[in-house]
Amino acid sequence: MNPLKTRLVLHQRELTVYARDPGSLLEIIVQAGVAMDAPCAGIGRCGKCRVRVEGGLPPDNVERSLLPDDEIKSGIRLACRKRHLPSGLTIRLLQTEKDPARETYEVEPADMSIAVDLGTTTIVIAPINLSDGTVMAVRSILNPQRVYGADVVSRIKAALDRAVLDKMTEMTVDAISAEIRGILAAIGLGADRVRHIYVAGNTTMEHIVSGADVSGLAKAPYTPAFHDKRQVPNLASRSGVAAEIVELFPVIGGFVGGDTVASLLACAMDIADEPVALVDIGTNAEIAIGSRAGILVSSAPAGPAFEGGQIRHGMRAQDGAIEDLHLVQDSVSLDVRGGVAPAGICGSGLIRIVSELLKAGVITADGEMLRAGAIGSNLFLRVMERAGEQAFVLHRSYDREVSLYQSDVRALQLAKASIAAGLAVLMERTGVVPSSLYIAGAFGNYLRPDDLASIGMVPSGLAERTYFIGESVIAGIKRFVINRPAVDREGLLAHIRHIELADDTTFNRRFLSMLPLRAFK
Predict the structure, then answer these.
(1) φ, ψ of residue 430 in degrees (nearest 5)
(2) Model confidence over 500-510: pLDDT tens digits?
């Protein structure tokens, strides 16, 4: 079959793409080597992969139901949708995407270990000075696997096809390798200085980067193909380093991976005298409670809402993302990342907005966004009906509107209820109230404990004892490499007990009880 010729128009350049057997516009874009988000993996639920198509491409039923009529008439289509594609189309990309912020610091030459936090959405890479523990640089890139969906379930479904899994492995190793080479050049250190590379991610990410069979993760009881530390094929050679050790952190269970092991080390749960709790907020939220006497861990399927997925105007925490909302005498003030015009709502912004509108009486504790006539303040002027549902307009300009929709509030309720119910189950199983709560992940850097308590994500009694530990995976790997053999990673694993929330008979009941946006003890 002859390749399909397509013109691809980006923001600063044009490409002529000869794609082989593309089943969607997204496949053409990916074959051109262009990164693009497709959070719902082709279901047509999120609408984030909009492109403008010229040359005649009829909308399908999903597009007719999701896209406004004026967008359809202007040629807007969803890149992820499977369909027959004619030759000669022109695809104009609408997404403007930047890599997450990067920082570099020049240091004196030293032997180093490279820590890699392999996240579902973002990959963070940091070389660590082995002589004094200095983090010599930090770089973040987008996980190239996101073209196969925003969450681990979508990635697992895609990776069941061996050829697709091999492609996902290759693109992930290549992306990490390129950044390692770039970071070494940026800090002026030779590849011969790298002694180890440690990679920690959730169980699915570790399976994909190592090319391991994911079929055991596709159905209950969600059995990993491996638990122990495992090599990452080709990572050293493609990075151009001769590291003595290139391995994954060991995984705990089906959806609790090496990133949780690293986070447990970061909050020093393995040596804590009193029980503490850890919650890593993300698409798949890992939860742990324990001390040196023993640790109970699990994971809660929170979904992509905290990373901007399944939110109508959602986006990651990059320039243009609304991070905060201030209500002063019925007026609205926004804090926008990068100091630019608002482009969407990131996860921390979603929590702040809902928390403030809850206090202002625009949203009820049941999660209902009131109609304009039922709101006893001038904020009613911002409540509109959009696409058949209530929406609170946050920003409007001549070419863009950013709003919080009723469905966005529901998505947040589902995500936070899953985490709260999981935490409640572990507290009941251990029979303890943690002395403190650690919130892990870069997402946690922008949160406020009072907001988490007010919407009922964490117990109100822990709000004053909640601490954010930021890049916990990098911190945990750092503690491991600097303090070996004093830090006993394998000993920690022996003290961990993993439970599946799906097997807990009280989880569903607790989940339903945690849906309201109200504090709980």
Answers:
(1) -85, -20
(2) 888 888 999 99
